[in-house]
Amino acid sequence: MHEVLRVDSSYSTAMARRNPSGIAKIWPSLCFYSCFIGIVIKASRLAKAGRYDGEEWTKSSLEVLRLLERIGLQIEISGLTEFTSFDGPCVIIGNHMSMMETLLLPVMIQPLKPVTFVIKESLLTYPVFRHVMRSRDPVAVTRTNPRQDLKTVLEEGAKRLGEGTSIIVFPQTTRTTSFDPAEMTSIGVKLAKKAEVPIVPLALRTDAWMNGKYLKDFGRLNVRRKVYFAFGSALRVIGKGNEEQHRITEFIAAQLTNWNEG
């Protein structure tokens, strides 16, 4: 996604892209989902055929980003050059608000470093989506057995990192539009320490993608809310990692405060 990566580490939706008309202006969510399902079906078919690689994943992610912009959302991204400040893979640790980050992060990171997610096991059985998720070789956890999940992340995550694939971790127990540092586990820091790779902190605000009434992942899109992604300076774990955990949560809290006051 050269438009995002090209200019001094940051990206902001151009006004020309945020000019919804017709049905998109009146029913932005309806317009989005009617097109989004086509993107997902196309990606799923490629994945089932074994042809959904990193490049195709990036293309799908870009399509979703452009679709969100066309219905009126403004998206701001900063800190992308952090991924060029070191060689090799890393662990990206961030807060988790909505389905949006799972869809948009690939276009930001994959062109710079091969990447995958730590995800809930249930996503591997999700209709249509499961083929796409499985093709990305994620680390799947239960979210119900913390001890087993830690073991899985440390073993499988270290394996992916050893193969050169960066890992995105959302250490909160559940998605939430508020941020409580106490709810951020240190699982990502532990993984980075074991694999001896850097950490890139990630703060995001994606509450424009609201929770659904019947399906949590598919709620209304509020185009009045800005979308933000900010990547912080890379960290190396020293000692037990307590200081790095604190710096990650501090970064996220500070960014959210700044965005909420802006």
UniProtKB/TrEMBL annotation:
One BP annotation, GO: phosphatidic acid biosynthetic process
Keywords: Acyltransferase, Transferase
Annotated Phospholipid/glycerol acyltransferase domain residues: 90-207
Pfam families named among the record's database cross-references: Acyltransferase
Pathway note: Lipid metabolism
GO molecular function: 1-acylglycerol-3-phosphate O-acyltransferase activity
Entry's EC annotation: 2.3.1.51
CDD domains associated with the record: LPLAT_AGPAT-like
Uppermost EC category: transferase
Keyword match Nucleotidyltransferase: no
Protein name listed in UniProt: 1-acyl-sn-glycerol-3-phosphate acyltransferase
